[in-house]
Here is the input.
Amino acid sequence: MEILSDLRGMLTPALGIVLFLGILKWAYGKKSKKGYEEAAALVFADDDDMEPGRVPRSR
Here is the structure.
């Protein structure tokens, strides 16, 4: 039983590191860039100029 405890003690941090790196890849990947740019542009958009559901273009 001590072997299982040691194995679990080694796998838990390794799994945490892999999960953390996966989240970093997802957050900073090329696919996420467009969504972040659109969200950043919303700050500068006028409410009167926008149609419902439309995202403003970058200036």
